Amino acid sequence: MEYKLNFSVNKQPVDLLVEPHQTLLEILRDNLFLIGTKDGCGTGDCGSCTVLVDGEPVCACLMLAVEAEGQEVTTVEGLVTDSELHAVQKALIANGGVQCGFCTPGVLLSSVALLTRNPQPSEVEIREALAGNLCRCTGYDKIVRAVQEATKELEHA
């Protein structure tokens, strides 16, 4: 039995028929072709599938698509505004916080959620916000520095 799902993705309304067992990750990648959200572990352990649901980081592999009814979902594709990268995206590039790139979408969205809640987080708060995002390449120091740098750009925006 299919369900009609009405929600918003990257500020665009979406109406879809979905199966009750389909995850938000499946819908984003397979139906909406938003492949920036990565399919890493399927168990919520790696954070590669992190998206924002009404501004809060969520592992899309663990959330059923039907749970997104009426909500705003933001994917990594939704961070660019008028062809301009988000401050966190720019800072990750400038600080070498992007290596293989598999964790990057989740890191970005977790960082954006943190900076929305707390525009001046401490290093400890940054590391806590990123605790659900596994990165094998950077060692996190470059990512933390990038988030700290992004706070400065956002402060002057």
Strands of the largest sheet, in order across it?
2-1-5-3-4
Order of helices and strands: EEHEEEHHHH
Low-confidence stretches: none
Estimate nothing, just give the exact number of structural domains.
2
Describe the 3D structure.
The chain has 157 residues and is an alpha+beta fold. It folds into 2 domains: 3-78, Roll (Ubiquitin-like (UB roll)); 87-155, DNA polymerase, domain 1 (Orthogonal Bundle). Helices cover 33% and strands 16% of the residues. The protein contains 5 helices and 5 strands, in the order E-E-H-E-E-E-H-H-H-H. The chain is globular, with a radius of gyration of 15 Å. The relative contact order is 0.16.
Summarize the topology.
Elements (H helix, E strand, L loop, with lengths): L2 E7 L2 E7 L5 H8 L18 E4 L2 E4 L12 E3 L12 H8 L9 H14 L5 H7 L11 H15 L2
Parallel strand pairs: 1-5
Antiparallel strand pairs: 1-2, 3-4, 3-5
Helix pairs in contact: 2-5
